[in-house]
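@channel sequence for tomorrow's demo:
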Amino acid sequence: MNKLILCLSALALLSLVVRALAAEEAAPTPAPKPEITIPDDVELIKDVAYSLDGHKSHKLDILRPKNPPKDLMPVLVFIHGGGFRGGKTTAGYRHLMRFAQRGYFCASIDYRFSSEKKFPAQLQDCKCAIRFLRAKAKDYNLDPDHIGVWGGSAGGNLVAMLGTTGGVKEFEGDGGWQDQSSRVQAVVDYYGMTDFMAIHELVKQGKATERFMRQDGKDSASGLLGGPFWENPELARKASPTTYASKDDPPFYIFHGDQDPLTMHQQSELLDETLRKAGVDSHFYLVKGGKHGWPPRADVDDKVDAFFDEHLKKGK
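structure tokens (generated this afternoon):
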């Protein structure tokens, strides 16, 4: 009797395995994510080291015209997002390709994540990349006097910091090319955090939910600063672009979706207001229906194109 029970159990188990294998074979294989197609008239050069220290994260990808103009090319640098703890340079390709097709020298840069190094390492990396491009201006036939930066989310914070901290020596770092300036001439900020302590105030007032500042300190801002940012207000202000706004900052264009669930649009409005009060040429555009990012849309793209053309192309 026991042998019969064991035999029946074994047959039942075998049946389950066979059915599971059959279901696995029948299940559709997830479609691979489509690769980013580089247009025929754009050249992509990957993994160019921009720092003299040889760090694996100190790389940038170049997108430039395959038939470059004889004149010096204006420069556009994209800085990806990812909560300061992730992201890839490929995130910038979609944004940069149309500019490369129109004669811009474009670069999408990487930087150290907060899991490896805390603030201000990320900003120091970005400044090093700008200095590198200036140092290599003759090699790449680019215009060192017309460099614009563009980024979203964490990248939005970093480009805003680049725009407001020109000349702040402690943020330069020691990655090389110290004889070059890290100043930029135009900034486009997509939904970046701009004033960390203002987030804290809004949450305290009940005007924002606590998802913007997690009590366990695992939000992106706290990860960047090495602990709950509201417990270290001095450091939080040090990492906020609003702290440094001054009349010698370059022009800004700031974009934010009105339905962003991750970064409050009040952050972008506050940066725009602070810059204007300091005498900076700043513009703010609230993207209707925009969340934390949005698909290509003409109302935004046209404004970005016109802004960079105005401030980076000679003769404008």
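heads up for whoever presents: The two ends are 94 Å apart (CA to CA).
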